[in-house]
Amino acid sequence: MRTVTNNSPSTASHAPAGPGLQWVNSFAGLGPDFYTALAPSPLPSPYWVGRNRALARELGLEENWLESAETLAALTGNQPLPGASPLASVYSGHQFGVWAGQLGDGRAILLGEMQTHNGPQEVQLKGAGKTPYSRMGDGRAVLRSSIREFLCSEAMQGLGIATTRALCITGSDAAVRREEIETAAVVTRTAPSFIRFGHFEHFSYRNQHAQLKTLANYVIDRFYPECRKAKQPYAALLQAVSERTAHMMAAWQSVGFCHGVMNTDNMSILGLTIDYGPFQFLDAFDPGHICNHSDDHGRYAYNKQPNMAYWNLFCLGQALLPLIEHQEDALAALESYKTVFPEALQARMRAKLGLPDAQEGDSALIESTFRLLAANKVDYTIFWRRLCGFTAHSGHEPVRDLFFDLESFNAWALQYSERLAQVEPAQRADLMLKNNPKYVLRNHLGEEAIQAAKLKDFSQVDTLLTLLQSPFDEHAGHDSFAGFPPDWAASIAISCSS
Ligand code: AMP
Ligand code: MG
Predict the structure, then answer these.
(1) What CA–CA distance (Å, rounded) separates 379 from 243?
(2) How close is the Cα of 97 to the center of ligand 1, in Å?
(3) How far, CA to CA in Å, does 163 sit from each of 231, 397, 416, 441, 454?
(4) What is the pTM of this model?
(5) pLDDT tens-place string over residues 261-319
(6) Where are the alpha helices (DSSP H) in 206-304?
(7) Are residues 292 and 260 in contact, defined by beta-carbon separation less than 8 angstroms?
(8) For residue range 427-443, what is the model confidence (pLDDT) as tens digits?
(9) What are the respective helix, strand and coil percentages of the chain, to the nearest 5?
(10) Cα 14 off chain centre by
């Protein structure tokens, strides 16, 4: 770790940082209690592993920015980006239901904010070396987990799910010890803010109420300005975060996404999917599926995620209590989750079924669909995509082939066909094809790209990025990326270690 002493982060100066780039770092303006200023630690002989040129364009970066040797060096942490003021932030959190005390950016370094057409975007290097918050860790990320984070961020974005983004991965042959020796990589990721529930918990548990208020005001003023007008702005903030989180959870459940480590330090205050670790998209539909090999008790199983999000929001509410003052205001703000989540989930599931409006009986149909998929262990993504071609009178076969209990399937198909009779077929097909992806980042697809990348073939990372950025399109010639998982997929074990 190299600590920078003469590079105090500035909030006001706009220094150029590469062609067309203007940096600020408003987070740094919160003051020294919130972070440690330090530079990334270099890695030898870096090379490009993946580049997200679509995001580079969205950010307004010049066409050749991701092509230059200077950018490669800067985004590996080997040379400073002019005008950036790197820092690691401090936070705390509840991990697996237990108060873990101080954590922080143990291997993520915030460079600053780019000013983009979509407003300020913070830029972080993940895996860029030790920080004062690294605890026993090495401050590094391995190639395997970096490819997974890079691809999944963009897969979620492609699916229309709120997420942090990933601009590129750079790699180095430097050895990193995990269960076995692997190599290092750095993911450059962006988000309007990387603030977590755990940032609030940190100051609250230390009784640092002035800092807690500074943080809450910063988040309200930048991201939730409407809360300022509320009678109780901090309760309004809790409610707004609860609602965004509810929408994110509905989106996860509807696509069969399991996060794996929903600790409060991995919950974004903006309701973004953040910190991709042992995540998984369901193959066969199993409501109790546990994707994280280290999650012995299944705390973060697929069907527990919505309740765990509420549990985390409760922690956030508790952290905000010194500002909210009246407990009943905090509880009332949290209540919104209990209505917004089921409504958002119903809306997403109706769209997947091709039902443009809500009718009585729809929730029973959705429930019976989930029950049928679970009883028959049906491949979740393939079922929904095939269902787009299901019609009331024919076209049952590709869907029916997925089930072994045909009696139950026929009963369900009859119930669904009756409901479809009230929907205009073209409208239904259009709705379904926009809501049932053909491509998701299944574990085995990521694994194949990782194995090739370990041999320095990065072409599959590129191919997957293209498919996952528009997962609802057909992408002729790429059907093998949309098929059933191979038998070996079930034996992939992914744990917290990354
Ligand atoms: P996670 O559950 O992966 O989000 O990480 C929990 C905490 O451990 C966070 O504070 C991380 O910054 C830290 N951490 C995870 N991996 C490492 C590592 N390799 N080196 C240093 N800190 C780490
Ligand atoms: Mg984390």
Answers:
(1) 30
(2) 17
(3) 30, 36, 33, 15, 27
(4) 0.95
(5) 999 999 999 999 999 999 999 999 999 999 999 999 999 999 999 999 999 999 999 99
(6) 209-223, 233-255
(7) yes
(8) 999 999 999 999 999 99
(9) 45, 15, 40
(10) 30
Q: How far apart are CA 389 and CA 157, in angstroms?
A: 25
The one-letter amino acid code at 257 reads: F
Helices 209-223 and 233-255 sit at what angle, rounded to 10 degrees? 60
Ligand 1 centre distance from Cα of residue 265 (Å): 10
What pLDDT shows up at residue 492? 87
Q: How far is the CA of 266 from the centre of ligand 2 (A)?
A: 5
Band of residue 325 on the pLDDT scale cut at 50, 70, 90: confident
Average pLDDT of the segment spanning 229-235: 97
Is 401 assigned a catalytic role? no
Contact by Cβ (8 Å): 125, 72: no
Strands (E) in 143-278, as ranges, are: 165-177, 181-191, 257-258
452 pLDDT more than 90: yes
Q: How far is Cα 212 from Cα 91, in angstroms, rounded to an integer? A: 12
Identify the band that residue 395 occupies on the pLDDT scale cut at 50, 70 and 90: low
The pair of three-digit structure tokens given for residue 37, joined into one six-digit string: 């200023």
Report the phi/psi class of residue 431: left, alpha or beta, with left for phi > 0 and alpha for psi in -120 to 50. Answer: alpha
The single residue of 265, 275, 295, 379 carrying the catalytic annotation is 265
Whole-number Å distance between alpha carbons of 89 and 446:
30
Tens digits of per-residue pLDDT, 136-145? 999 999 999 9
Pocket perturbation via mutation, ligand 1, pick of 265, 274, 498 by most ligand atoms within 8 A of CB: 265
Beta strand ranges found along 232-356 (DSSP E): 257-258, 280-281
Structure-token pair, residue 229: 């007008």
Q: Which of 142, 149, 148 is nearest to 181 (CA)?
A: 142
**Which residues surround ligand 1 with Cβ inside 6 Å?**
103-107, 133-134, 137-140, 261, 263, 265-266, 275, 277, 496
Q: What pLDDT sits at residue 396?
A: 83
Kindly state the tokens that stand for 22. Answer: 């203007």
Residue 244 has pLDDT above 70, yes or no: yes
Query: 330 C-alpha vs ligand 2 centroid, how far in Å?
Result: 26
Q: How far apart are CA 492 and CA 480, in angstroms?
A: 19
Express each pLDDT in 3-47 by its tens digit: 333 334 444 333 334 545 678 899 999 999 999 999 999 999 999
User: Ligand 1, atom 17: nearest CA belongs to which residue?
Assistant: 137
